[in-house]
Amino acid sequence: MQRRPFLQTLCGASLATAFAQAQETPKKLGWALVGLGSLSTNQIAPALLKTNNARLAAVVTGSPEKGKQWSEKYGFDASHIYSYENFDKIIDDADVDVVYVVLPNSMHREYVERAAKAGKHVFCEKPMANTPDDCRKMIDACAAAKKLLGIGYRCQFEPHHREAMRLAREKVFGEVKHIQANFGFQSGDPKQWRLRKALAGGGALMDVGVYALQACRYLMGEEPVEVSAIETKTDPVKFAEVDETINWQMKFASGRSAQCTTTYLFNGYNDFTAVCQRGKFGLEPAFGYTGLKGFCSGAKNYLELPNVDHFQLEIEAFSQAIIEGKPFAPSGEEGLRDLLVIDAIYRSIQSGKVEKVATV
Amino acid sequence: MQRRPFLQTLCGASLATAFAQAQETPKKLGWALVGLGSLSTNQIAPALLKTNNARLAAVVTGSPEKGKQWSEKYGFDASHIYSYENFDKIIDDADVDVVYVVLPNSMHREYVERAAKAGKHVFCEKPMANTPDDCRKMIDACAAAKKLLGIGYRCQFEPHHREAMRLAREKVFGEVKHIQANFGFQSGDPKQWRLRKALAGGGALMDVGVYALQACRYLMGEEPVEVSAIETKTDPVKFAEVDETINWQMKFASGRSAQCTTTYLFNGYNDFTAVCQRGKFGLEPAFGYTGLKGFCSGAKNYLELPNVDHFQLEIEAFSQAIIEGKPFAPSGEEGLRDLLVIDAIYRSIQSGKVEKVATV
Lengths: 360, 360
Known about the structure:
Two copies of one chain form a homodimer. Chain A has two domains: 152 residues, 3-Layer(aba) Sandwich (Rossmann fold); 148 residues, Dihydrodipicolinate Reductase, domain 2. The N terminus of chain A is likely disordered. Chain A has ten helices and 15 strands. Chain A is α/β, with parallel strands linked by helices and 360 residues long.
């Protein structure tokens, strides 16, 4: 009576793996990519060639020519090429299980809602949307359609970040007392959509500052309650519509604090540091696609972990959650929580005051 | 006609040194220490044994017993022991050229003014005073007495800091775009004067935050114009009167920014980073009495410079300025500038708003 549950607990994972291997290879979930810009081209599509439970099955693009090139390169039939106009027909496409929205931020809400209505699970790039209200509507749309919604916070699947989360959670250096997190780079092409407020919703904060914010939240293990922010701008022509550099600081309910800087002005600011009761640890660089490096008090070359494809891992995790019918994190609520802080940061810049972070 | 000025320029320093060595050893300036606490005991008095142009000539103490011990240990006559009551008699003490005020912050103004009135040059520990108005009065008192006033910003004489200033000023890594500077430690004895607002004027910010502020100002080479600050407190009993942790951020007129954290809550936050156009440089630890270490993009063990006695250097520099009849930096105005920013930081915490930094 006792033996079977014990064995199941002990060997459940490997037995399941052996069982799965004994069966024929399960069908990979079909993913449709909406938006074939640089991120889809250089990161996501290549990752979908490596994923063990997902494959690129369709694309949504404004360019029929580009669609054709992609169908040939990635081996799906031209019938799985959609335009933004006929996208809703994807409801009838049995090859597509998941829609991955990789569009400019302001378009996330519309395509997440349309994908959910088409009966597809939805994976959405960060930042989730331009406003908390948009996030709530996206969560509601997926809930109404009974479809899973995940946000592309790739770092949450990356080994250095996961180990850092463990160090914080298990108080390996004592309690985390303070976080410093920064992400910025020198923005290039002045004509890119990321510098248009109508498309991007904001500048460096929306694009890369959100990584620093994420790190603070998942290392603290609690939500910020107040923020104060200042914006500085040295190039008001290039950054006429969006923020160039934002500094912000956050107060947590426990009385702990964090400080962050994000910028489109200069390179090389790409790190986080957790200042703990008994030392510090962190990553630098922290948020790139590869080459992440750890550090801690009293040791060099800390956290020497393998470089992995962040996009492969997030796609596999989301696919696995669908296959197993389980919840997925980072969820839409996680995306909403960041937008609530971002909203407070922008309000603080406008008001020149400390602003409270609204609750979910 | 051309040759002599050329040689003077080229060899001025070494000729002057040779000339000085040929003369008999000049009399060392006599320094009086006001306040014989830990800093005087462990740092300043030992430094005065090493200084080439200064010596400990008198003390001002509330304890006659302590005064006697010091006169024996440091070899000055008991007639040079003063109490806080009879301090003004120092006007007649020809052995005393300089009074070094090492008292709790709130007493700086009174003793700087009394020392100036007694016709002595004055060196004052940081922070200069509790308020900008006190600083202005101290500057006026020394100006009226035609005596030199210097502030004990020891890092400004320290080789790592001086090299960092040069790297910033000469744009060795390109222009400095942003500064991160932090200094804090876990405060010990709950009964110390530094935790009493009436004596210290404030908490971590007044005591150690001022080092981080200094670094921002001398690396930026310009003054902050606006600040926003938040205070967090996890131990409202121990830190009932003064700040435990303050985060603040500063905007400079050029559009550049800086962020700082200071704390009495945890150890190990003791660094600055200058984020520049072409990489970063900084110190960690940055503000201790010894063991400072440099870093920069792409190199380990950057800025391997000798460890020196910061107090010896500042005392020698102030003495030399007196001997040569030259101005001294960091001056009282430098101390005032920090207090103007500190005042804006405390105002920001009170108002919850961005506050402008008042001008000198």
